[in-house]
C-alpha cells in the first residue's frame, strides 16, 4: 500500500518516502510498542524498506526517540522506550543516554515540530526538568550549570544555525527565548559564555530598542550593578540617552579632564570595533567643546600628564591604522585622524617614546601558541561582529589548545572529583604510553598557567567545544599570486593559504588550525606570515623556496616599475603600498632571524667545548633553542640567506621609493652600491663607474629626504648635469623661476609631453602666476584636447584661488568628465579639486553635499 501511495500520489520512490516518514513515525512506534502488537512489525518493515537492520535503525534515531519520550512528560513512556533499547542493544540507561547526549540536548532545546505558541511555551517550561533527569541518570547529580557547561557552545551554535538566521520571524523569536532559557540555566557559569551569547543577541537587536534596553540595564538595575556602571564605555551624549548618562555620571561622581581621558584611552583600546568608534566620536566632541582645557592640560608638566598624553596619541594612531573593511572601521580611521588634528602639535618632549618589542620568529611551538591565543585569537573571539568570525577564532583556539595538551580538566569550573582523580593518577606508576600522556598534561598545564585570568575566561569554552574545519584540498597555485589590482586582504589570504599547504613539521598543525581565522582577521594573518615563510624556506622543498622568492619579487617588481612611470591616482594604489610594506616587514624579520642564528651559533661554540654546568645552564636559557645538530641550523640559515640575497637591492630601493619610504630606499641603494663596486667616493679603495641613471635615482631619494645640499653634491658626480638634475635641485631650493626655465627647455625637446606641460603649470602655481596659468590651461585644452580632464583638474587650482567661480565651475565640469588623466606625485591637483567642490557646494548652500565632500576629502 505504501509503495502504491508513494508512486501514484507523491510520485517518489518508496525508500525516499520512508526516509521522510522515519523522523515522525519511528519515535512513536518505539514509545508505543508495548501497547501495539503492530509497532514492532512496522519497525522491521521500515528497516527492510531502507535495506538496514532494525536495531541499527533505532540506534541511529536514538536522540529523536528519547527527546520524544521526554517531551511527552509521561514517565511510563520513557521507561518503555529505555526498556525497548535495553532488550535490543543490551545497554543500561546510563549508556543509552551517554550515547545520545549531544544530539539529545539539541533535540530537547531546538525542537521545531510544534507551531502552536502555547504548546511551545509548555515544552520550554518542561525542558529544565528534562535536562535534570538526564543529568541525574548520567552523573547522579542535578547540577544543571555543571552538566551543561560542556554543551552550551554547541547548543548556541545549533540555535543560531537552525532558528536565529531563519527567514521565519517566529523561529527567530523562538531562538531568543531559547537563548534566554540557557542564560537562566547556566547560572554562575554564564560569564564564560558572554562573548558567544552577545554575538547572537546583537543579531536580534533592533536599533529602535536600544534606548529601552540601555535604560533597563542601567537605570532600572543600578542597585544591582552598583560600581560596575563605572566600567561602562563612554555613551553618546544625546537626548535619548539622557537618563542613562545621568545614572552613569552619578555613579562616577565628579571627574577631572585627566580622569575622562583615562576612560577614553581604555575605550579606544577596547576589543569591540563599535565601542572604539563610539568612544572616538565622543572624544572628538569633547576636544571641540573644551579646547582651552585640553590646551592647558597639554602644557602642564609631570609624569602623569605625560603618560596620559602618550597613551592617548598611541591609541589614536592605532585607530588610524584600523584594518577593518567595514563602514564603521573606515569611520573610526577618519574620526581618530580628526582627533589627532584637534589635539594639534604636541611638544615631542612630552610624549614618551613608544616601546616596541623586537619581533623574534625564533621561538618554541608553545610560545607561538601562547602568543597567538593571548595577543590575537582571544581578541578576535571577543570582538567578533558575527558568529562566522567568532567560530573561526574559537576553532583555532580549540585546535591550538589540543596541540599543546590542554584538556577540559584545566578549567577551574570543572568538578572537584575530576581534579582529585587526576591528582591521584599522577602519582601512580604508568607504562610508557601513559607516561607520555602525563607529560602532555604537564605541558598543557604550563601553557594554561601562562594565560591571564581574563583570557582564561574567554577561551575556557574552547577546551570542550567540538568545532570542525572542513577538509578542503588546498591545491597550491602555480606561479605568483600577487596582481597590482588585488586588495591587500585578498592577496595575503591566498598567499597564506598557499604557504599553509607547503608547511611541514609540528608547525603545520598550528598553521592549519588558523586556516579559518586568517580569512577574516588581518592581524592574525600578518602575525603568522613570517612564521609560515620561515617554515617553508627552512624545511620546505626547493619548489616552495623558489615560489616564495617569485611572490616577493612580483610585489616589488610591480612597485619598482611604477616608481619610474606616471603615478596612478586610483583606489588600489594604497592597497599596493600596504602589500609592499608587508613584504618589507617580512624581509626585516627574516634578516633578524639570520642575525640571531649567527649570534647564537657563535656564542654556542665556547659552550660546546666546555663542560661547565654554569655555561650549560646559560645555553639552555637562551631565548632561541638550538637544534641538537648545529649543521641543520646552518643549512636553514643558508636557505634564508639565499632567499634574501636573491632579491636585487636596486629593486628594493625602487619599491621603497614608490612607498615614499626614502630612508629605507637610501639604505637599500647603499647596499646596492657596495655590492656593485664599493662606494661613490672617488677616494675609496674600490670605486666603480656608475651610470647616470644610478645617480639620478639617488638624487630623487635625496629630494624626498629634503636634502638640498646632498643634491648639489651628488650632481657633481656627473660629468655634466642633466636637465632633470637642475629641476630637482632648483625645486628643493625653491627657485621656481629656474625650474620654469628648465621646464621650458624640456618642452622644446618634447613639445607634446603631457608631463612637461603639467610641470610648467605646477611652476606657475608655485610662482603665484595664476592668470598666466589659466591662459596656459585654456591653450592646452584647445591644443591637446584628449587630456582635457588633466588640464581642467589643474586649472581648478588657479580658478578657486583667483575667486573666479564661473571658471571654477567650468573646470570642475571638465575635470569630472571621462578622459585621460595624468597625475604627478608632486601635484596637489586632486586635493584642490575637492576643495573647489566644497566651495561650490557652500555657494549652493547644500550642507549635505558639503558634509559628503568633507568626508571624501578626509579619506585622502
Automatic annotation (TrEMBL):
PROSITE patterns attached to this UniProt entry: FAT (PS51189)
Pfam families tied to this protein: M-HEAT_ATR (PF25030), UME (PF08064)
GO biological process: DNA damage checkpoint signaling; DNA repair; telomere maintenance
Alphabetized UniProt keyword annotations: DNA damage, Kinase, Nucleus, Serine/threonine-protein kinase, Transferase
Principal subcellular localisation of the protein: nucleus
InterPro entries listed in its UniProt record: ARM-like (IPR011989), ARM-type_fold (IPR016024), ATR-like_M-HEAT (IPR056802), DDR_Repair_Kinase (IPR050517), PIK_FAT (IPR014009), UME (IPR012993)
Domain (FAT) ranges: 651-860
Keyword Nucleus: yes
Presence of the UniProt keyword DNA damage in the record: yes
Source organism, top-level taxon: Eukaryota
Signal peptide, first to last residue: none
Location relative to the cell: Nucleus
Record GO cellular component, one term: nucleus
Molecular function GO terms recorded: protein serine/threonine kinase activity
Enzyme class: transferase
Enzyme Commission designation: 2.7.11.1
Classification via PANTHER family: ATAXIA TELANGIECTASIA MUTATED ATM -RELATED, SERINE_THREONINE-PROTEIN KINASE ATR
Stated name of the protein: non-specific serine/threonine protein kinase
